[in-house]
Amino acid sequence: MHHFSAAEVETGLDYPRLVEALATAFRGRAEPTPVRQVYDVGAPEAPGHLLTMPAWERGAALGVKLVTVFPGNAAHGLGAVSSVYLLFDGRTGRPTALIDGEALTNRRTAAASALASRHLSRPDSRTLLLVGTGHVAAHLPAAHRAVRPIERVLVWGRDGDRAASLAGRLDREGFAASPVRDLTAALTEADIVSCATTSTTPLIAGRDIAPGTHIDLVGAYTPAMRECDDRTVLRARVFVDTYAGALAEAGDLLQPMAAGLWSAESICGDLSELASGARPGRLSADEVTLFKSVGTAVEDLAAARLLLGDGRPERQRAAS
Length: 320
Known about the structure:
Belongs to the ornithine cyclodeaminase/mu-crystallin family. 37% of the residues lie in helices and 23% in strands. The protein is α/β, with parallel strands linked by helices.
């Protein structure tokens, strides 16, 4: 069995190939993928949850991501979320790879946004507004640059120092990056707005979005979280990664639905339909498009298979 560290995942999953791998996986999806299951596994003094995310392609491969969320870990100097991914052979059931789960999640999440952007953002999109300063946010500019000519990145975060630090890192990666304090003003300049936060109150106001903007909502992944307001949803043609996941977990959509302002029938398509051409993406230069992602195990499986097949280190390839 092969073992992949975070560093090996980062080097083995470049965005152009990963976006294509996700497109192929979504086009070829033959059966529904289970929505992640969440189990309460904590103790009174240490609350915690276990999440399981399985996916499979019959006769080829199957895998499961195991995620733990222990909010009290900060008191011990540890992150709240830990994860691993285990890949199995689809013909024999034997394990083939153990992969760092956080690195895999970061890259496949960003690649899914890029896949959606390829269909939904304007082809001439050059300015990306990044809302959020965490690990996933840091990956989004490079992923979007794999499908659009992104040159300029504006970084907004509640912590100005963190926004400045991330902007400096992106500047070293070849972007013209700068931190911004005025989110409203930045929204009017952006071709693509990419949000990766755990906010429970809207950060993006629909009244401030310029015509032709693509909104990429990555972070909020529970019904209680949201990154945009109702007006943003009502202004946009809305797409999701999967119908089942979005309608179970996406607070950005579930909250306006609960208020009677919007309905699930207004979803214009999911990634499978976009990748296969079954549903059209952007229809005009002036329309506002919105992609809501909560994550799906299809993406983990596609990324893990790409890593094992094409991205594994030479020393492992020689030993197999």
